Amino acid sequence: MKNFKDSLKAGIEAAQEAERNKKEITLIFDNINAQVKDISENKATFGKVTFKRAVDREPSRPANIFIDSFIPPKMEEFEGLAILNGNKQNAIMLAEWEQNSAGYPCYIRYNGQKFICQDKMDLENSLSSLLEEVKTGEAILEQIKKANIPSDKPIS
Hints:
This protein is of the alpha+beta class and about 160 residues long. It contains four helices and five strands. It has a five-stranded antiparallel β-sheet, sandwiched between helices.
């Protein structure tokens, strides 16, 4: 009979490494969030958010095109990196995020580019590039502006 102890030990070691990797990634995100909160005076935050998007359907036969227009699109969920308001709501997506079950590699997609992060240094460099983007600055400014509008006055 085959002895599976070595396989089991390898699985346990992989799980422990995955836990360390995930904690490391969480600490990086927490650090970014703290810095976003600091520069925005707690009016903006940074984090991972679950978003939804419509998925393309198979094209119908011409006779069904009219009927298809009444069927809501199929939606899929995906993770994204976002700037949120101080209450961690009203997310403005910056990039898509995908994380391996082992923590690394993880993937960041924006502006038609895909960044593959094999380790902490790759992740920090990729996130730094994302944070330098105009859309990141615009998202932070938008959250700050919204926070500065008195709640009893309509947004124009």
